[in-house]
Amino acid sequence: MTIRVSPDVKAKLDGLARDMRRTASYLAGEAVTSYVEANAWQVDVVRKRLDEASAPDARFVPHEEAMEWFTSLGTDRPLRKPKGKLVSDL
Q1: Is 86:57 a contact under the CB 8 Å cutoff?
Q2: 50-67 as b/e: b if 16+ CB within 10 A
Q3: What pLDDT digit, counting tens, does each position of 4-35 carry?
Q4: CA–CA dist 84, 57 (Å, integer)
Q5: Among candidates 9, 37, 13, which has minimal Cα distance to 25?
Q6: DSSP 8-class letter at 34
Q7: DSSP assignment letter at 14
Q8: I need a labelling partner for 63 at 20 to 30 A (CA). Which of 24, 28, 43, 80 fits?
Q9: For 33-90, how does the pLDDT look when each residue is reduced to its tens digit (9 = 90+)?
Q10: From CA 12, how far away is CA 20, in angstroms rounded?
Q11: Annotated domain spans of the chain
Q12: Is 82 helix (H, G, I), strand (E, B) or coil?
């Protein structure tokens, strides 16, 4: 694998590698692994939610209704959580 980084990042990576007594390649691999682990779950969740939203029985709450409910939370008169509606009923 080949990656491109700015000269400044390369210099910092080389300095870290030297100070940590590791190779720059090792540290780059650790960084990529960390990035993938931190972000892969988000793509999975988005994909699942898109599948749910595409289902024929998917229910949605209009934005205005959701915001009205949300802003009522924490007040002395919170609204009931709105119920979703089928797309055909919006």
Answers
A1: yes
A2: eeeeeeeeeeeeeeeeee
A3: 999 999 999 999 999 999 999 999 999 999 99
A4: 10
A5: 13
A6: H
A7: H
A8: 43
A9: 999 999 999 999 999 999 999 999 999 999 999 999 999 999 999 999 999 999 888 8
A10: 12
A11: 1-55, 56-90
A12: coil
Q: What are the beta bridge partners of residue 7?
A: none
Q: Which amino acid is at 42?
A: Q
What whole-number distance in Å separates Cα of residue 72 and Cα of residue 74? Answer: 6
Side chain identity at residue 25, one-letter code: S
Cβ distance 60 to 90 under 8 Å?
yes
pLDDT value of residue 44: 93
CATH assignment, 1-55: 1.10.1220
Amino acid found at 12: K
DSSP states along 41-60: HHHHHHHHHHHHHHSTT-EE
Q: How many angstroms separate the CA atoms of 29 and 22, rounded?
A: 11
Structure tokens at 75: 């007040």
Q: What's the pTM?
A: 0.55
